[in-house]
Design a protein that fits this description.
mainly alpha; 4 helices; single chain; 82 residues
């Protein structure tokens, strides 16, 4: 079900992949670390909430393999197919 929603979202906004697998993996790991630190109350307050929101964006962009900021800066970490 989630994959169908993501696919429809990608088609609607004509998003082309611009994130490679290494980039996606790093983002998910960073998001997991931030969530763990927040859960253990090592980070808290406004700073913790901002980092959690950023972690959520990292996970979302990893799921759809598209980062809008990469488009603005012309970055593409996707491997080229020959």
């Amino acid at each position: 079900m989630l994959s169908k929603i993501i696919c429809k979202f990608k088609k609607t906004f004509d998003m082309k992949k611009n994130m490679g697998s290494v980039d996606k993996t790093i983002r998910v790991i960073v998001a997991a670390v931030v969530a763990g630190l927040y859960y253990k109350e090592i980070i808290s307050g406004t700073f913790g909430i901002v980092l959690l929101a950023l972690a959520g964006v990292f996970v979302l962009t990893s799921l759809v393999s598209f980062c809008p900021l990469y488009t603005l800066f012309g970055i593409n970490t996707c491997s080229k197919k020959s």
